[in-house]
Every structure is written in structure tokens, then in C-alpha cells.
Amino acid sequence: MFLGIDAGSTTTKVALIDKEGNLLYSFYSSNQGSPLNSILEALKDLYSNLNDKTYIAKSAVTGYGEQLLKNALNIDIGEVETVAHFRAANYFLNGVDFILDIGGQDMKCLTVKDGIIENIMLNEACSSGCGSFIEGFAKSLGMNIEDFAKAALLQSILLI
User: Residue 62, SS3?
Assistant: First the structure.
């Protein structure tokens, strides 16, 4: 099995896949300002669901907490977030040429040409529209972030 961790500025994401790329486990949660505690919670849950025959061959981490988690938990690979986004997007859509990452504290726009990240644009001045802002806005409407995202997607589809 292969373990992937995204230690974002506001959330923790974990995925465990097999050698064919099948998703066997996933975890998504707010990190409550402590990426290490959040990932320890996720790993306890993951390990409680594994059997004795499960072997995690490699682990990788990306995101704001990459170095903290890599060093604290002896994770095999630390990957720059933009490279991780590109590799994942290109896996699902070979030849991808544009990636928009709306993170907890920033947004990144990546343009790709011939399989190489050509340009990265980052909003540095304002977090409006980022994950933490969107989550706060959803809460002000009395909605959780999942329902807010579904409503936004439905509204976008209706406008098309």
C-alpha cells in the first residue's frame, strides 16, 4: 500500500491506495491549527482498519506541514505542493494544462506546457475566496462547507 498525506494550512487529508491505484482509505478533517495532532488522529483511525497483512511500502506528504510531518513521523517523501497537484491532475487528465488550487490560506494557479509547470500565480494580498474564508462564509449562512460546495456547484450548473 501507499500512503499520501496533505498537511494543509487548515485541513488534513490522507489517502491509502494499493499498487493499482485503488483508494482503500481516505480521511479529511480540519486540523484545528495542529497538523501533527490531526494526522495522528487520522493514522490511529487508519491503523485500526488495517489487517496484519497490510504493508505500507511508501509514504509521502505535501502541504504547509510537509517538513514538520516528514521529520516527526519519518515519512519517506516530501513533495512540493504544486508538483503534487500537477502529478495528481495529470494522472486523472493526461495532458492537463491548467490547475487551480483553492487552499485554506491562498490560491495557486498553475499553467502547464508540454508536461512542465510553466507558470505559478499566487494570490498573496488577500485570502478572500480561499478555504478558510469560504468555510467562514458558509457558517455565516448556517451551512456546513460540504452543503455550501454542493449548492455552489448546483448553482453553477444551472447558470450554464
Answer: strand
> In which residue are the cell numbers 488495517 written?
50
d(CA 105, CA 140): 18
Summarised one tens digit per residue, pLDDT across range 118-127 is 999 887 666 6
Predicted TM-score (pTM) of this structure: 0.76
Quote the CA–CA distance of 109 and 147 in Å, as a whole number: 25
Q: 509514504: which residue's cell? A: 59
Structural contact between residues 4 and 79, judged by C-beta atoms closer than 8 angstroms: no
For 63-87, the pLDDT digits (tens) are 989 999 999 999 999 999 999 999 9
Q: Which residues pair with 16 in a beta bridge?
A: 3, 25
Tell which wins on pLDDT, 6 or 136: 6
3-state secondary structure of 125: coil
Closest-CA residue to 13 (of 2, 1, 25, 21): 25
Say if residues 29 and 35 touch (Cβ distance below 8 Å).
Answer: no
